[in-house]
Give the backbone structure.
Amino acid sequence: RAVRCGLAVQDALRDLGLEVRAGVHTGEVERPQGAKPRGIAVHVGARVMSLAGSGEVLVSGTTRDLVAGSGLEFEDRGEHELKGVDGRRRVFAARV
């Protein structure tokens, strides 16, 4: 749903002459009462988004694997080092 939401927001704002970027990663999120969501999944999602260009929805390889069979299409954008995250992560551009 997050990937489709990002694509829908992108489409709606494009009609207004605006372009946004979005990043999606799937993982565990901590949300202590009264605090902002936090955890490595939030951090990875933000880093994936930072790689996106204007008008792009990028997803992590984890998310791409989990939505297999959903009808979404993905274009490989290669492996990237994400600041503050160990190892390299493969990133994909989402399309309907």
